[in-house]
């Protein structure tokens, strides 16, 4: 069990800015000259593997009914539902274009609807998109097909959940953020505990595979006490998974955050205390700390994957779904296929133009070179299993680990003295305490971060590590 | 995994110093004879991915020995359909089928960055008349090609064909001093499928089944053979057990 006092001290010591490593290199390094052709080339290469990977589809629905001030996602706040009608049409076309490039034996194992607010779409539209996916791609068998959707408790009814389950959805993720009304008003997102309770009850009754909550700390008007109370309410609802996100206040980059009063934000020290309290109280409530922002009950797939080493990190956080090629569909969606990343255009007008011209709407991307692949593998291991075996890596990547990473290993030794990692003769392992500091450990191996001009550059582009 | 065969570097270009000498033409040559062979070998031309060495119909001039990497030879029928006759590893010769017709019968194409030694056949013929051991090795290598083509005409199930292909590839890597249980499948799935006359989807289905049965483990292009005996049994052992060309 983690000692609270020691955790506080180390949180203060290692506080800083850094990437969340949902990818390495991060999306900031995507290049506008890497467009459709490199993407298609990577698809071809992925098709030619002896045993090609299954596919995971991500559909981005950017629309929201109202503006949540904290949100930094790519979204469009509108009440004109006609915009969704047009968007569904465009998505359908992109789905069929994307599918054509993949070989017939590339089965879809995972479908995830994210946003924005995916349920901004009518249920009929979601069903239509699933049908287009089924017609265009080849779906895995029902028991192995993970279908998830992010839900806004304010706009979804228990009856809607029934309809979604009937379509095949087996994972729901609820945007909770905070149960405190004062906080909810300050972020312009009011939703009652009763609303959430009704959805949770229905989801249980429908026996869905996994129910996940998103909660945010560092929001305006939060205090240690108020957040502890909210977290108690969260824990009482027993979500299988819990994402505890750190609110990154970057009003210079995200205009809607200017509507948040800076003086209402908890101080840095208070925020660290909130996080520290939460780690301790979630552990007491029986949640396993998966890593980064994620917690899960021991019987949930994520906890099992952490134990058996099959855990993966991807754009949606953590996943149990092995090694898929990820196909992003919709504005700003990111694909990861073979050794390439590729991100769609963010603006809906540009998206419309590209789709109308029958072009894949790719804006930028990156094809990983040898050094990137090696470091991406290391960071993936740090973030997931938390174990590095130098000999294994040396063999798989054809390098001499200790020569290649001699500087990095000095930095690892420093973290070992704080008890964040345990050193072995030919490797190291992240400790239970160290899982709270995964970003700091991963950053050691990030070559792009070192290339950044100075700390200020890092600060502007990345959120705080803890 | 470190299974890629390194490119030739200058000091290893001579037959006498080439690590492939035991597999290739120089087998059994004395050091004096080796010099005569080296005189007629144009060593170490490098080809980039998908580059042609020759195309079908080109007048016969050279036979080729793979120095590093891999090449495929491809027959093209009158409808333009391609059939991959073989994949050629370091120390293996190709172009031999052109001796009788005096023109190449297939396209020879590089897989990845690879290199070759070229030997003008007219020179080789003259030299082989003087050097019995060279003549013997040349005929042995040709006989091996004939044997391989016999094996391929045998009626096999898809499982047998793929297992046999992997077992034979493993044996060829072993001969070259590499691991026989862990190697890199350099060729595209489409090419393996074409070579074995199957659909590409059949290849992935079989790889998945072999993996589920614990015979192999596939990570991207890295193949790990977990149960060689079972794979050999499955293959019917045709390419290997009766093979005179697996020498250690």
Give an overview in words:
The complex is a heterodimer of chains A (466) and B (248). In chain A, helix 1 (4-14) packs across helix 9 and helix 3 (82-100) packs across helix 11. The longest helix of chain A is centred in the first third of the chain and has 19 residues, at 82-100. The relative contact order of chain A is 0.16. In chain A, a hairpin with a 2-residue loop joins strand 19 (421-424) and strand 20. Helix content of chain A is 41%, strand content 20%. By secondary structure, chain A is of the alpha/beta class. In chain A, strands 1, 4, 5, 6, 7, 8, 9, 10, 11 and 14 form a ten-stranded mixed sheet that branches. In chain A, strands 15-16-17 form a three-stranded antiparallel sheet. Chain A has helices at residues 4-14, 36-47, 82-100, 123-136, 158-167, 181-186, 193-205, 224-237, 268-284, 301-308, 348-356, 370-383, 390-397, 401-404, 406-417, 438-443, 447-451, 455-461, and strands at residues 55-61, 63-64, 76-77, 107-115, 138-139, 146-151, 171-177, 210-217, 241-246, 288-291, 294-296, 312-314, 317-319, 325-329, 334-337, 340-344, 362-367, 387-389, 421-424, 427-430. Chain A is built from 18 helices and 20 strands. Chain B has 248 residues and is of the alpha+beta class. In chain B, helix 3 crosses helix 4 and helix 6 packs across helix 7 (200-212). In chain B, 35% of the residues are buried. The chains are: A alpha/beta (466), B alpha+beta (248). Chains A and B meet through loops of A and helix 6 and helix 7 of B.
Task: Provide key terms for this protein.
A: 466 residues; alpha/beta; ten-stranded mixed beta sheet; 41% helix; B: six-stranded antiparallel beta sheet; 8 helices; disordered C terminus
